Design the sequence.
């Protein structure tokens, strides 16, 4: 089997990124394939259709976090799991074609991270969802550059949102979540997660191509 295929984690501004890590499908190194001022952060893989196992999905997310922390911090436009290309040439063709979209996405998320907040009603608790949503918006809304709602997968789930937050505003956002927990912690389970690469705020779709 050949490892000439490239598995893509995300897109960064130009500048080499290279480090050893536990990458998708058993790879042990990630690096950049560059076109003009964009770079795709990749690892080698022996297929263009990788299976999304729990282990590899976690490796994908872990590599994105390592890239975000790399060399003092890097902004990355994250790709969903499974983007793989047959060659550097095929990948560069995609970078060329989607360059304006990647540039717009990069500008939107530069210096920002995604944070997640779920509020779940404790058993036997009674809450006013509208009141809680208004309180969360007052506390956190001004600190977020963008906000998106996520799925309501349970009757006990009062709120499920993702927030795009400037790194400089992270401490204030953390404090806001802590105040909400102090206020509502007897009635609500507060699940605060992140930072993540900002999947929820990037809408760039690319397809595997081989030319």
Sequence:
């Amino acid at each position: 089997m050949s490892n000439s295929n490239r598995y893509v984690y995300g897109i960064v501004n130009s500048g080499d990124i290279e480090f050893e890590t536990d990458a998708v499908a058993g790879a042990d190194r990630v690096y950049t394939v560059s076109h003009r001022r964009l770079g795709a952060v990749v690892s080698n893989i022996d297929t263009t259709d990788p299976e999304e196992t729990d282990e590899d999905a976690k490796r994908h997310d872990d590599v994105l976090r390592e890239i975000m922390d790399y060399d003092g911090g890097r902004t990355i436009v994250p790709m969903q799991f499974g983007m793989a290309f047959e060659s550097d040439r095929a990948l560069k063709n995609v970078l060329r074609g989607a360059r304006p979209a990647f540039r717009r996405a990069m500008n939107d998320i530069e210096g920002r991270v995604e944070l997640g907040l779920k509020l779940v009603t404790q058993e036997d608790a009674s809450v006013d969802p509208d009141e809680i949503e208004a309180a969360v918006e007052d506390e956190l809304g001004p600190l977020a550059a963008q906000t998106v709602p996520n799925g309501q997968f349970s009757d006990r789930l009062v709120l499920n949102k993702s927030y795009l937050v400037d790194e400089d505003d992270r401490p204030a956002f953390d404090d806001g979540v802590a105040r909400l927990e102090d206020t509502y912690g007897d009635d609500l389970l507060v699940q605060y997660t992140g930072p993540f690469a900002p999947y929820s705020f990037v809408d760039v779709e690319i397809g595997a191509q081989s030319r």
